[in-house]
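WARN no homologs supplied; continuing
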Amino acid sequence: MAIPLLLLAVLGHVLLWVAVVNRLHAVNLTRGVSHLGSMACLAAMLGIAAGYVAWFFVAGTDVLEHLRLDAVVLRPDVLLAVLYLLGCALVAVLAMARWIWRALLQPQPAILREHQSRSVRLAAGEGAVLTEEHAHHFLVHLPRNEILHLDFSDRVIELPRLPSALDGLSIVHLSDFHFTGRVGRGYFDEVVHLANQEKPDLIAVTGDLIDENRFIDWVPETVGRLRAKYGVYFVLGNHDVWCDEPRLRRVLVECGLVDLGGRAVEVSVRDRNVVLAGNELPWMAPAADLRRCPPPSSEGGPMRIVLSHSPDQLAWAQAHHVDLMLAGHTHGGQIRLPLIGPLLAPSRSGVRYASGLFYSPPTVMHVSRGISGEFPVRLNCPPEMTRLVLRGPVAE
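OK structure emitted
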């Protein structure tokens, strides 16, 4: 019994510090503090593990004896160490139960009517590798790296209060481009071309476009070329805030995109009004003041669609009677382990909202895995562009 318990404690120890990192990146911190905090958590995870190894093997402590269920621990130094191990073991058990639920038992949201996807390997400028803008970092070419394997998803979703005039409305959702120079610009050129080919009614971009100021120059020929029948709308994310955020907004608006950061607009779509709003919390305040908008759809008002960089704003969306919320930020975990799924997701909820479709009445939320990432490695978690087709409730 002691050896399985010890193995669970090791797993729980890792998960505990990963959970701290996830929540660290869900709050408003500067880039330096965020990275320093991540390094501190890594050091703590490795340091505590090294301390236990030294205690067990150098000091000759028989930890397995102390972990026996019939053992009586009296020494204070041993008590604290064993309590931590037991706590870590409990963390591992709870995490495993959650994995089993998510992988085997959790039903698909009832609002998901159809889901089809296809993988598109983008050349991403490979014919122009000699130019700086199109060259890729060597990590992009690692075996099994999916960073260039764009997953194009078609999801037909049901919105309980969708007006019949808007039935079939299509929205292309894009997020987390992360212009770092590690993935060549040609890749993003092709993503934009594919999005425009869909001829959607709306395009929603949910933040984290750039990681360095110099890549604002990429915007006019990439994201700036996005076009949709009723407009292209955007909010910014934490990586954008760490750069020249006012200049980035200005360039995007000059390209014809509509800035929803901290505000709401009412637009006419198929002769029906729709409220489109932005929430860039916790990095930029305030969120859109929906109290100044027409009443929600539950009271006969227009449908409400919110763009938010972080899925952590779901509770805010529910409280403001939002019908559809689009988010990113988590990258789907970027590396997903078989059966287990993602471990890293910068959210107060950990990996719960890493990617996919969620329904917390009255709000349907779609979380994108994103187009790229600051670190250009994806395993079992390809980048994603999604076309959402909205449908009203099925008549019974």
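The CA atoms of residues 15 and 292 lie 43 Å apart.
OK
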